[in-house]
What we know:
transcription, WH-like_DNA-bd_sf, ArsR-like_HTH, WH_DNA-bd_sf, single chain, Arc Repressor Mutant, subunit A
Amino acid sequence: xxxxxxxNAEINMHEEMRRAFALLxxxxxxxxxxxxxxxxxxxxxxxxxxxxITQHMLTAQLRELEADGLVSRTVFxxxxxxxxxxxxxxxxxxxxxxxxxxxxxxxxxKSVPVKSNARGRKAKGS
Length: 126
Protein backbone atom coordinates (compact mmCIF):
# COMPACT_ATOMS: atom_id res chain seq x y z
CA UNK A 1 0.00 0.00 0.00
CA UNK A 2 1.25 3.46 -0.79
CA UNK A 3 2.21 6.00 1.79
CA UNK A 4 -0.44 8.68 2.09
CA UNK A 5 0.11 12.24 3.20
CA UNK A 6 -2.17 13.73 5.80
CA UNK A 7 -1.08 17.21 6.70
CA ASN A 8 2.66 17.23 7.27
CA ALA A 9 2.86 13.66 8.56
CA GLU A 10 3.30 10.75 6.21
CA ILE A 11 1.14 7.75 7.04
CA ASN A 12 1.97 4.26 5.84
CA MET A 13 -1.55 2.81 5.51
CA HIS A 14 -0.22 -0.72 5.36
CA GLU A 15 1.34 -0.28 8.80
CA GLU A 16 -1.79 1.43 10.11
CA MET A 17 -4.01 -1.43 8.90
CA ARG A 18 -1.63 -3.94 10.49
CA ARG A 19 -2.15 -2.11 13.78
CA ALA A 20 -5.93 -2.22 13.27
CA PHE A 21 -5.88 -5.96 12.45
CA ALA A 22 -3.71 -6.62 15.51
CA LEU A 23 -6.47 -5.26 17.76
CA LEU A 24 -8.78 -8.07 16.66
CA UNK A 25 -6.28 -10.79 15.91
CA UNK A 26 -6.32 -13.77 18.16
CA UNK A 27 -8.22 -16.99 17.99
CA UNK A 28 -11.23 -15.75 19.96
CA UNK A 29 -11.33 -11.95 19.82
CA UNK A 30 -13.71 -11.59 16.90
CA UNK A 31 -16.12 -14.08 18.44
CA UNK A 32 -15.96 -12.28 21.78
CA UNK A 33 -16.56 -8.93 20.08
CA UNK A 34 -19.46 -10.38 18.07
CA UNK A 35 -21.16 -11.60 21.24
CA UNK A 36 -20.53 -8.38 23.17
CA UNK A 37 -21.93 -6.41 20.24
CA UNK A 38 -25.24 -8.16 20.94
CA UNK A 39 -25.42 -7.49 24.71
CA UNK A 40 -23.56 -7.27 28.02
CA UNK A 41 -22.18 -10.61 29.23
CA UNK A 42 -20.87 -11.97 32.50
CA UNK A 43 -17.66 -13.99 32.34
CA UNK A 44 -19.38 -17.36 32.80
CA UNK A 45 -21.95 -16.55 30.12
CA UNK A 46 -19.20 -15.75 27.65
CA UNK A 47 -17.38 -18.96 28.47
CA UNK A 48 -20.55 -21.00 27.89
CA UNK A 49 -21.32 -19.13 24.66
CA UNK A 50 -17.91 -19.93 23.13
CA UNK A 51 -17.45 -23.71 22.91
CA UNK A 52 -13.87 -24.85 23.37
CA ILE A 53 -12.44 -21.68 24.94
CA THR A 54 -10.55 -22.17 28.17
CA GLN A 55 -10.96 -19.93 31.20
CA HIS A 56 -7.33 -18.87 30.87
CA MET A 57 -7.70 -17.92 27.18
CA LEU A 58 -10.96 -16.04 27.71
CA THR A 59 -9.35 -14.08 30.53
CA ALA A 60 -6.28 -13.27 28.39
CA GLN A 61 -8.34 -12.20 25.37
CA LEU A 62 -10.66 -10.04 27.48
CA ARG A 63 -7.67 -8.36 29.16
CA GLU A 64 -6.13 -7.55 25.78
CA LEU A 65 -9.43 -6.18 24.44
CA GLU A 66 -9.82 -4.10 27.61
CA ALA A 67 -6.24 -2.78 27.36
CA ASP A 68 -6.94 -1.75 23.75
CA GLY A 69 -10.07 0.13 24.80
CA LEU A 70 -12.51 -2.16 22.97
CA VAL A 71 -14.11 -3.82 26.02
CA SER A 72 -15.00 -2.41 29.40
CA ARG A 73 -15.09 -4.49 32.55
CA THR A 74 -17.40 -3.56 35.43
CA VAL A 75 -16.95 -5.17 38.84
CA PHE A 76 -19.90 -4.96 41.20
CA UNK A 77 -19.20 -4.90 44.94
CA UNK A 78 -21.29 -7.94 45.76
CA UNK A 79 -20.65 -11.31 47.35
CA UNK A 80 -19.89 -13.25 45.25
CA UNK A 81 -18.41 -10.56 43.00
CA UNK A 82 -20.24 -9.95 39.73
CA UNK A 83 -18.24 -8.87 36.69
CA UNK A 84 -19.79 -7.71 33.42
CA UNK A 85 -18.18 -7.08 30.06
CA UNK A 86 -19.44 -4.81 27.31
CA UNK A 87 -18.02 -3.23 24.21
CA UNK A 88 -16.99 0.41 24.40
CA UNK A 89 -18.23 3.24 22.22
CA UNK A 90 -14.94 2.96 20.31
CA UNK A 91 -15.73 -0.69 19.57
CA UNK A 92 -19.29 0.18 18.56
CA UNK A 93 -17.65 2.01 15.66
CA UNK A 94 -16.90 -1.47 14.28
CA UNK A 95 -20.66 -2.08 13.93
CA UNK A 96 -20.74 -1.31 10.18
CA UNK A 97 -17.85 -3.74 9.68
CA UNK A 98 -19.75 -6.47 11.55
CA UNK A 99 -22.88 -5.70 9.51
CA UNK A 100 -20.86 -5.94 6.29
CA UNK A 101 -19.44 -9.29 7.40
CA UNK A 102 -22.97 -10.51 8.20
CA UNK A 103 -24.20 -9.42 4.76
CA UNK A 104 -21.22 -11.12 3.10
CA UNK A 105 -21.85 -14.33 5.06
CA UNK A 106 -25.57 -14.30 4.18
CA UNK A 107 -24.61 -14.10 0.51
CA UNK A 108 -21.61 -16.46 0.44
CA UNK A 109 -21.69 -18.52 3.64
CA LYS A 110 -23.40 -21.53 2.07
CA SER A 111 -20.50 -21.88 -0.38
CA VAL A 112 -17.94 -22.14 2.45
CA PRO A 113 -17.11 -25.74 3.40
CA VAL A 114 -18.28 -26.73 6.88
CA LYS A 115 -15.42 -27.35 9.29
CA SER A 116 -15.44 -29.07 12.64
CA ASN A 117 -16.31 -26.78 15.54
CA ALA A 118 -13.62 -28.47 17.62
CA ARG A 119 -11.41 -25.53 18.59
CA GLY A 120 -9.22 -25.48 21.62
CA ARG A 121 -9.84 -27.85 24.50
CA LYS A 122 -13.16 -29.48 25.08
CA ALA A 123 -15.16 -27.68 27.74
CA LYS A 124 -15.91 -29.72 30.85
CA GLY A 125 -19.23 -31.45 30.57
CA SER A 126 -19.22 -31.42 26.75
